[in-house]
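User: Structure tokens for both sequences below?

Assistant:
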Amino acid sequence: MTDATQSPDPRVPAREDCVMRYVLEKHAELHPEHPYIRLPDGTAISYRAFRDEVMRMAAGLAALGVKQGDHVNVWMPNTVDIVRVWFAINWLGAVYVPINTAYRGNLLAHVIANGDARVMFVAADLVERLVPIDRAALTTLVVAGGDAPAINGLRRVALAELDADPATLPPLARPIEPWDVQSIIYTSGTTGRSKGVLSSYAHMWHMSGREAFPMLGEEDCYLTFLPFFHVGGTLPVIGMLNRGGTIGIGGDFTTEAFWPAVRAMNATYTILLGVMSNFLSKRPPAADDRDHTLRKVTMIPLPDDWRTFADRFDVKVWTLFNMTEINVPIVSEPDPQAIGTCGRQRAGNELRIVDDNDCEVPVGTIGQLIIRSEAPWALNSGYYKDAEATVEAWRNGWFHTGDAFRRDAGGNYFFVDRMKDAIRRRGENISSFEVEAEILAHPKVRECAVVAVPNELAEDDVLAVVATVPGETIEPLELLEFLQPRLAHFMLPRYVRLLADLPRTPTQKVEKYILRQQGITDDTWDRVKAGIEIKRQKIG
């Protein structure tokens, strides 16, 4: 292993503590047989075995010409393969650029163009989505999971072919540093296209560290059902690696698969997003409700009836607030007492709730949450190739979350609302801008606005309010069929409302707050009531 160095600033972690290549090497030597990954069938992969697999894949990747600093796209579902690929990329000092498996059309093309990757790992089932779009700088597809159609101009390599002798690995041009970019993770825009968040190894270390997750240690198995193309899926992998602990790969979340996965992998901890805990709570009581290894759960957001869940399943409960750009600055105590809290400010960060002029508001007053860290590189390093968005988010030396919060006299923070037009559904952030862009591509649509409306599960659903070109009419089903090949399944509107004109300010800005207040009106079409069910494509 390359000798680790320490930054002159002691708040920056050493290479051997945060750079994934060096951390994996360390644990492979210190406790080689300790399981790093557990799978739903009960099998486990030790640190040493996983290190050896990663090195072989990294050697194969190097043979394709990937070198330190290169960007590599990864477009694959949650399997052990994606973890091997991810670590192999970072082993070379290259940058891991995951892509949401639901993306297609213009959104997919934008992310590919923005990411500047030449090599893309892709599940075979997804390859056909690349055919009709601009593939920018891509030259090579590494295909996982079976045969896929050939695409002119792209070299195609089977994932299994990236199995080479580690002795052929080239030396690094220089050591991988804590401040080097580890990943670019795309998060939904609000006023523009999705933005690529630049995350250093130090950023990920702070985000998944002991201050952010004080309940986790080396003895834990962190079961995740969250996709690895989101920060929620990234954190478990890095956090347990840094602790020398175990990660359980749960696949897709279903209420039927959850407890069997817990038991098969001896999981001790997990995160439940949105309605996951609600789904589990609504299952009929069973004699084995407490017969499992799970002891700790983080719920985001914290439901009012969390105690019922905790008592029934015999677990301790936490909550927190995070986003891709920051580092879990708000964490609760176990079994938080304040109803609806996100937790309290954790050590190492400064938080303020401010008005439109970045002036701090009094306790109890609603404003925007902004953050800065006491440690260098502990937050994001900006948005890739988007200087304007970076400057806007980082104005006045603070990162602006875009979320409205309030704080009580006891130091508890409470999420109030999104200050911009992002919509959150089933754990996915949806850009109203991106949905609107695709709706406007329909030749009969003159203008539109997309807003969030609550559904029966107390989360967001998508309402599209549409005005047609004069003399034209459009049926909601026609619009939905137009959007299906263009948008990810979770971005498709559930509700469509047709208006002659959209409400506007004197400066001609659409007054979305009026549309949100009006919500679901009598003349709003509901695809669920129409009997139309849209599901995510099963990959693999």
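Moving on to the next sequence.
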Amino acid sequence: MKERALAVDLLRGLAIVGMVLSGYISRNPDLPAWLFHAQLPPPSFAFDPSVPGITWVDLVFPFFLFSMGAAFPFSIGRRLDRGAAAVQVAWTILRRGLLLAFFAIVLGNTNLWTLHEALQRPVAASLLTLVVWGAFFAMFIRLRNRSERFNTLLNGCGIAALLLLLLLYRALGVDVNLYRSDIIILILANVVVAGSFLWWLTRRKPGLRMGLVALLVALKLSAAVPGSWTAEVWNATFAPWLYHTEFLQYLCIVLPGSVAGELIARWLAHKGAATPAASAQPSVTAAVPPHFVCSVTSTPTAAMPLPDGQAAPAETSVSADSAVRIARAGSAAAVSAAVSAAVSAAASSASLSAPAAAAVPSPADGKGARPAAASHDAEPLPGRFRLAGALVLLLLAVNLWGLYVRALTANLLLTLLAGGAAAWLLRRPRTALQELLSALFATGLFWLLLGLVFEPLEGGIKKDPATVSYFFVTAGMASHVLLLATLLFESLRGRAGLLVRCGENPMIAYTAAGYVVVPLLFIEEQWGFSMPWIWGAGGCGAGIARGVVITLLAMLLTSAFTRRRLFWRT
């Protein structure tokens, strides 16, 4: 069966769309506080690090981090299982981090609002911003019908163009410097490098990986002691504009995400092996993890062209007896034991080893074919699994409410009740899909409860400065969103086309609003109808409409590129 990890795409799409929407809702003092970061409340919108609690806005960044970790078994594992040399894989990881860091610096220095303030010419500033976005496009795009040499030259031209544009911005009066960067992308650049290498090293040792999470937590908490050696390590940096050890705390979200990604990759491999008929639709093949079976019958599958112009390798298909062995290897007991070992870090010998990467191009990389509608019949699930999904949705709502209004006791009791009921409904899974749903719920509930245990520390759950509770609560919520997304696609035959396509092309979605949509609206305002709401004028309705309209236009633009299989390789 040829499949994409659509649930991961959907989670990433939700995160990216949430980032854009939250960034373009006008800061109207009359709007409710839950529409903004908990620590940037109206009416003053002044940052207050003492305010505990989270809103939906505080979830979008950790959801993206979690989805990035979930993509490791696909993006890195795929290369490893194709036999790529270790040096080549390492260079790919480092190159990705360096490009993201450069991207962050350019974003921080080419903001439309900053240029407009320096230039005071809306049309010129808008046109120049569009040129910058075009240079981004050249830097990241991989054209399928072009040679590797052509794509490399195109990417190099994009980088050169951006360097020249930075010089131009400086000449126009913008204070261009290395320390002005997009902090979100800069953190991503740091954790994608560290997280990729750590996942690689612990690919078949998930217990060790969870031990690293515990080590990070200990380092973070002990670093609060002034003058301690842990404080020195935590605050270390060799280049303040590029790296801070403190950035690595977000691995407490990324690494749990990798566990969820391994569960999904294992299920996709099992699903692909259990389906003898291959779909003729252009999509991506799920490879069979070699450690599931001792032997498989190797037959070439249809090669799938990737956005970088390379064809996916011929993967393995399995004989009937091999499929039986795979099914046995993926039994409920095996999956349950593996998940327990991963989340507790108690038994490093229990193997929830990362599967041989599915040949699903990494959504985090912005690569891969546009997901086609599932070519198989949706698996019928017992009603109790759908009821469990409703309870999981209730869990998400309860924790958002309870942590925001600080009803901590009620929140904990309701979490235990709803979580216990959902766990009872998800007991004794009988199919691979049921096992996946049960495992995603179990790991999510573990992280969520762990986060609630840590909640009283560090002044309560906070996004900035990020607390240990924030890491684990959001990781648990992200795992549960993956569960709901899997239910949506596999059982309810749901569709979330725009969100999925934004998740496949995340950096286009991230930049489309500020570098394409808003500049075009500026130009239209100068040459057509006046739209004061673009600048944040108007009442509460206009403030919300501003965010919705700009976000929807950015989503439609991203979808158009994704449909045409034009992906940014970030």
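User: Anything stand out in the second?

Assistant: The chain has 20 helices and no strands.
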